[in-house]
Amino acid sequence: MNGVVVAYDGSDFAMQALDWAMDEAEMRKLPLTVAHAWHWPYGEASDEAKDHLRRAADHVLWHGVSCARATSAVTEVKGELWKGSANDQLVALSGAADLLVVGSRGLSRVPSMMIGSVACHVAAYAACPALVVRGPGPIPAPLHPGPVVVGVDGTPGGRARPVVEFAFAEAALRQLPLVAVRCGLTAPSFGTSMALVPDLTLAEEELGEALTAWQERYPEVRVSARVTLDAPREALTSLSKQAGLIVVGRRRFGHLGSTADPVLRHAACAVAVVAMAD
């Protein structure tokens, strides 16, 4: 297993991702793989010219690995240098990883873009949970880090189980509270033309009861259940302003869906995307 894998290209966004990945590897007691991909984008050229770019890429990777070894307590840090697509490299490494960490964008991204193509790609295709670092940096660096927030679709079991499990485990590792949110609640229809108002208090109680089994498994995590009429993208994006991490699920391989995609693009904090169960 690769443990924790982090994409690193030397940018400020990659440094944020590296900081977070080091935390994850330390807390999980797992090895850390620093990955960097390079390619020659200028058409025909001599092998000597290409070798200059390869050596520059090797130096970038060396810098990331050296930073991790010098500033963290991770016992095993290694580098992976590939020639070719960063997307392909990271997805391949995710097949044997526990967690894949990437920055919101890299050196090739223009400042106006909210998130880079690599982050979107790995979030949609990674075989393990993918964590995209957004906002000011990793938790728990802030003096008062926000909670872990998980979006719950219906009940926190069944297909949503891997998503909820990741959120609880992360909250336990970081000793943070967990907020479970069920969004877009609608009232049942009984064939009447009158608008029915859902009972939010009852829905919160039902969600809290459904979380009981998870609380028994992670007794150290302080949990609160919330229910809202707001659509998931609006509710979770709003909560991200006070959160340390948002955890969302994706339903299909290669497809982020109507919740994960906008949250990933607009959240004010880091976002973890976890594949839901089949």
UniProtKB/TrEMBL annotation:
InterPro entries linked: Rossmann-like_a/b/a_fold (IPR014729), Universal_stress_UspA (IPR006015), UspA (IPR006016)
Domain (UspA) ranges = 4-134, 147-274
Q: Which family does it belong to?
A: Belongs to the universal stress protein A family.
Q: What name goes with this protein?
A: Universal stress protein
